[in-house]
Amino acid sequence: MRPSPYDTLLDDETWAFVDTSVGFYPADATDLDPAGQRRVYDQLCKAFDSGRPAGVLVREFFLPGPVTAIPVRQYLPAAANPSALVMYLHGGGFILGGLESHDSICAEICDATGYAVIAVDYRLAPEHLHPAPFDDALSAFSHLAATCRLPILLCGDSAGGNLAAAVAWAARSQMRSPAAQVLIYPALGADRSKGSFASHARAPMLTTADLIYYDGLRSGGRPAHDDPSFTPLAASEFAGLPPTLVLTAECDPLSGDGPDYCARLVQDGSKAICIEEQGLVHGYLRARHSVSRARDSFARMVSGIKALGAGDWPY
Question: Which residues form the domain of 228?
Answer without folding.
Answer: 6-309
